[in-house]
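Researcher: Good morning. I'm working through a list of sequences from a screen, and I'd like to move beyond sequence-only analysis. For each chain I'm collecting a predicted structure so we can compare shapes side by side. This is the next one on the list. No need for commentary yet; just the structure.
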Amino acid sequence: MRQGSGILTTRQRRLAWLGFLLAALQAPVSAWLVSDDSWLFSLCVALMVATVLIADDARRRPADARTGD
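Model: Good morning. C-alpha cells for this chain:
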C-alpha cells in the first residue's frame, strides 16, 4: 500500500511544528510576565495548530494501519 497524502507539504509541516512550539512556549512566559489573561490566545493558537498536525498525521497513515488489523 502506498502512503496517503497529507494536508500539508513537508515544508508547511515543519513550519507548523515551529509555530506550535513557539506558541506553546510563549503562553507560560507571557502568563508570568503579563497580569491579564492574554496568554490564553497563545494557548488557543497552539491547540489549533496541534489539531491541524494531528489531522495531517491521520491522513498520512496507510489505510490498513487505521483499521488496527
